[in-house]
Design a protein that fits this description.
The chain is mainly alpha-helical. Among the domains are: about 50 residues; about 220 residues, Hypothetical protein af1432 (Orthogonal Bundle), CATH 1.10.3210; about 70 residues, K homology (KH) domain (GMP Synthetase, Chain A, domain 3, 2-Layer Sandwich), CATH 3.30.300.20. The protein contains 14 helices and eight strands. The strands form three sheets. The chain has a three-stranded antiparallel sheet with strand order 1-3-2, covered by helices on one side. It has a three-stranded mixed sheet with strand order 6-7-8, covered by helices on one side. A hairpin with a 4-residue loop joins strand 6 and strand 7. Helix 6 packs across helix 7 and helix 8 packs across helix 12. It is flat, with a radius of gyration of 54 Å. The termini are far apart.
């Protein structure tokens, strides 16, 4: 019974739950349908609003299009009016051009008639002239040309002489200005050096150690270094003598090291010599680097820089060659700036112009020949090679840079105080030069200039002709080579002037 009641209750509960669920679902469906209906109504309302807005914008676009069309039509009308005016103007100009062509044609006809008449008149005049002069046209032309040529030649000769004189004056003036400016802007110290070097000693007792037993130490020192050590009565000093300045400097450093150490014997001399050679080599490298750095040259190979530094221990006429070369490079650069030449080339050419002197005591040949070989070995440009080989006038210049290097060499070497020489020797050399030139027949005046490096000989025009002047220059040069002793070279210039003087009374 209880089971039946439970089943009945379960069935009733299920029916009630079903009815409640159905009612709930029906309520939700009605709610969704209501929301959908509202959404549809809102969409229809928005659709109407969008359509109205679109129609309004469409009307605005149509109105704007009509306005633009009217503006475009008015512009077209204006353009058509301008074209119409231009067309009328063009037609008018064409008609005027046709009239001008007709006038030109008529004038051309008149000109041709006039030219024909002129030809006929010219022919008639030529025939009359031939009858009067008795010459043909070609003969008369030749006579006239010859007379004109003679007259013009005389005028050109006078004019060219005048222009050449003015050009020389201007060139000399400009050259003096450039050289003076270069010298003013370049100031270098002057260094003089002898062929001997003094080494100070702490005491005279050290002289005995330097000599050694039976002269063993001093002989070893002289043989290893190729110099002569002079031990005389000079207190607390010895003298190192030698022609090669590099060896002499190495010997000085080596001897100073030995004196400082106090132990002097052959083995110690050899050790000190090797150290001194390394120090001097380092000094050469530093001197070469300092020189190229000072001049702003950056393309030299290390071995060439070492050779440049070697010039620090080389002198010429008492003038330090490295300082002379650096001074030259500065002078040459200043001159090159003034005349528009290549500054870099003249700097390198000037610095290397005496590079042969770095090796001329160890190689055969002049320093110019050796310098040329060095330049070619390092593949330097042809302009630099020419500057090296032409700085003594033995070779012609191939560029303005070589001429500037030669000029800078003369300026640096001839300025007061640059090269040391005793006043007596200087006067004697000049007198010997002048007396030698005076010994030739026909010589009127002789001047030795540039410290005896050039001699100018003025000859009497009536006694010596041009060919004789050239012959005399060669004979004077040969006699100087045979009779006189001098360093470097001497330039012989023989001058023959013809002066004609007239008086207007």
């Amino acid at each position: 019974m209880e089971i039946i009641i439970g089943l009945i209750a379960l069935a009733v509960g299920a029916a009630v739950g079903y009815a409640a669920r159905k009612y709930q679902i029906a309520g939700k469906v009605n709610s969704v349908e209501a929301r959908v209906a509202r959404s549809i109504e809102e969409a229809k309302t928005k659709e109407k609003e969008i359509l109205l807005e679109a129609k309004g914008k469409a009307m605005e676009i149509v109105e704007q299009g009509k306005k633009t069309e009217e503006d475009f039509r008015s512009q077209i009308i204006k353009v058509e009016e301008r074209l119409t005016r231009k067309e009328s103007d063009l037609e008018r100009k064409l008609s005027e051009t046709d009239k001008f062509k007709e006038d030109l044609a008529s004038r051309k006809t008149e000109i041709e008639k006039t030219q024909e008449q002129l030809r006929e008149l010219k022919q008639q005049q030529a025939e009359k002239l031939q009858k009067i002069a008795g010459l043909t046209t070609e003969e008369a032309k030749r006579v006239l040309l010859e007379a004109t040529e003679k007259s013009i030649r005389e005028e050109l000769a006078l004019l060219s002489h005048k222009l050449l004189g003015l050009a020389r004056e201007d060139a000399d003036k400009k050259a003096r200005e450039i050289v003076a400016l270069a010298i003013q802007r370049c100031a270098s110290e002057v260094t003089s050096e002898q062929t001997t070097t003094i080494v100070n000693l702490p005491s005279d007792e050290m002289k005995g150690r330097i000599i050694g037993k039976e002269g063993r130490n001093i002989k070893t020192f002289e043989q290893m270094l190729g110099v002569e050590v002079i031990v005389d009565d000079t207190p607390d000093a010895v003298v190192i003598s030698g022609f090669n300045s590099v060896r002499r400097h190495i010997a000085k450093i080596a001897l100073e090291k030995l004196v400082q150490d106090g132990r002097i014997h052959p083995a110690k001399i050899e050790e000190a010599t090797e150290k001194a050679k390394k120090e001097v080599a380092e000094m050469m490298r530093e001197a070469g680097e300092a020189a190229v750095y000072e001049l702003g040259i950056a393309n030299f190979p290390p071995k060439l820089v070492q050779l440049v530094g070697r010039l620090k221990f080389r002198t010429s006429y008492g003038q330090n060659v490295l300082k002379h070369s650096v001074e030259m490079a500065k002078l040459a650069a200043l001159i090159a700036e003034e005349v528009g030449a290549d500054v870099s080339t003249v700097k390198q050419g000037a610095l290397l112009h005496d590079i042969g002197k770095a090796l001329d005591q160890e190689m055969e040949g002049t320093h110019v020949e050796i310098g040329k070989q060095i330049a070619k070995k390092f593949n330097l440009p042809d302009k630099i090679v020419n500057a090296i080989e032409a700085h003594h006038g033995d070779v012609e210049y191939t560029s303005i840079e070589a001429a500037i290097v030669d000029a800078a060499d003369n300026i640096s070497g001839s300025r007061p105080g640059a090269r040391r020489d005793t006043f007596e020797n200087y006067i004697q050399r000049l007198e010997e030069l002048e007396n030698l030139a005076h010994s030739f027949e026909g010589v009127e005046k002789v001047y030795a200039i540039q410290g005896g490096r050039e001699i100018r000989v003025f000859i009497t025009p009536g006694k010596v002709d041009d060919w004789g002047a050239a012959k005399m220059a060669r004979e004077i040069a040969n006699k100087i080579e045979q009779d006189l002793k001098y360093p470097g070279e001497i330039r012989v210039m023989v001058i023959r002037e013809t002066r004609v003087i007239e008086y207007a009374r």
